[in-house]
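Record format v2
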Amino acid sequence: MRTLLIILTLVLPPAVAAEDAGIVLIGGGDWELPIVREDTGAPGRVEDFLLDVRQVSNADFLDFVRAKPEWRRDRAPGIFRDARYLSHWPQADALGVGNAAPNRPVTHVSWYAARAYCREMGGRLPTMTEWEYASEKQRDTLSVAPEDYAHELFSWYANPGAGALRPVAEGPAPGLGIHDLHGLVLEWVEDFQLVLGRGDDIDLLTGSCGDTARFLPEFDEAHYATFLRFQSRSNYQPDTTTSTLGFRCAYDPE
Amino acid sequence: MNLFKSPTIVTAALAFGLAAGGLNADDRLVHDGEFIVDGKIFGLPEARVYTEDYSGPPVVGGYLTAVPNLAELDYEGNRTHEVRMDVIAQQIEVAPGKFYNAWTFGGSVPGPTLHVREGDRVVFTMKNRSDEPVVITEPVAGGSPFFAQVQANPIQNNQPAVSPMPHSMDFHSGTVAANDKWQTIPPGATIQFNWVANYPGVYMYHCGTPSVLMHTAQGQYGAVVVSPKEGFPTEADREYVLVQSEFYLTEDEYSGGYRYDHAAAMARDPSQVTFNGHVNALHDAPLRANAGERVRLYVLNAGPSGTSSFHVIGAIFDRVWYEGNVENEWRGMQTVLLGASNGAVMDFIVPEQGSYKIVDHEFADAERGAAGTLVAGPRQ
């Protein structure tokens, strides 16, 4: 179903197709991640990519699970998801109310499951760079002050409203035409783990005290809030699922 | 090659000692690879990270208490403690009307105080339950004394919250490779590791996950008291634990209540500085003693960034053991300076019936809440 929409999108000008098809073209450019990563010293270049306008919903994911029953919570192999995978659904193939309602973002999904979903849709998970690039462009378009961005993020981390998530994509899509990049649930990205150099050793960022300053080009609130997203994402395992972690897919332009 | 640096050979030598009649046989070594230097145990086994289907009490262990209580060590010599402190999010109040969603060990800020004896071993288990609401204010079967004490004095009005985040545990009382034992685990995972109380003291524990300033300012810290093997040279009539810490809160324009203020934390400009996690903790429930009694305070300054010039108005500390080690004895101290994560054991003799204010003599901190009261009754 979504595969068909993608094909349609690609033969139409993106600006026309975006809101209908649910996919938006993000024009690439030269860009540096807001976090200093030691594994990529070269200047950053982001190529054009397509991104889902909205996060994947429970209804979307139920369609996927029905088409690919090996991803039902009672069949998916344990190495691909933790014990809480889709645990908010009343049944393995049925939705419910509240956070399990069809229009709520799907949560309690592992990185493996998110990747399988996007592959099924003819896409992939966005890379960390792509996702962060879209996030920053969205904030630029909306003229969000760095302090406001930081304050909202700090508020969300301590109180993400996990008990009563809002539906995905409420109201008109802001900025670049993308819903819910911030403030609803976090999103998986393809390369979610930061690499940390430690002499000859390397470490996925499981670091301890003192592993912050070396990642931050500025010590202002906005960079710190962004780092918090990188850090928390980096400490997930690919089988991790939480009540505030979902995803959307990206696609390569033809 | 120094043969005695090889754990295998040390273990073999100890085993031989045991066979030869128990001379210096050390059954304190539990796992392959453990070794002893200067009577202290090192080389502990790797931490185990796993998932478990556990939804029981978030604090388990008989020697875990809520501040200002300290568990009595009702055993001789050394033992192994099975200790659990799960990470849970909790809405707590730190001043009248000032509440926020804290990240905690066990549900209070500071977290439970663990009391062990020098030489004891701790098998520590922690599940990251930041993604589930956990109630600590109702009777908990199988939990530690901590719960009854929180429920008897619920000054933080602890309410369950959900705030999924990766977290870790760093015990300053342990001597280990931090990248192993203190490693960060995601929501839903459990970590288990050993540490041995090699040194006596009043130690901090805290979450060490970057950004550590936010994780600690959010509430993830507490105290471990390691009593010296031979005890202290004086006999205390009363013992209390005090943990000083700063909070950096501002009104939350998005969710109501209060939230972490990173700019204030970086500027070391706290909104509250407290003893035991609430500006009124030691006013609503003052410490108690009687004239002529020797009061022993186990004081930890948890920071995260400030110092404490700890002082009791009207008293002089008869003895101070800095960091809680009997080797570090001071006498007749008016004020004890504690940097972030320093601790001390302080004895004073209550001069007469009356009210004794306990303050951080850095008055900008005292006036933000770092003050309490000890109420003394007549001489018994």
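The interface with chain A takes residues 51, 53, 89, 100-101, 103, 131, 133, 161-166, 168, 170, 178-179, 182-189, 208-214, 218, 252-255, 257, 259-263, 266 of chain B (CB under 8 Å).
Chain B is about 10% helix and 40% strand.
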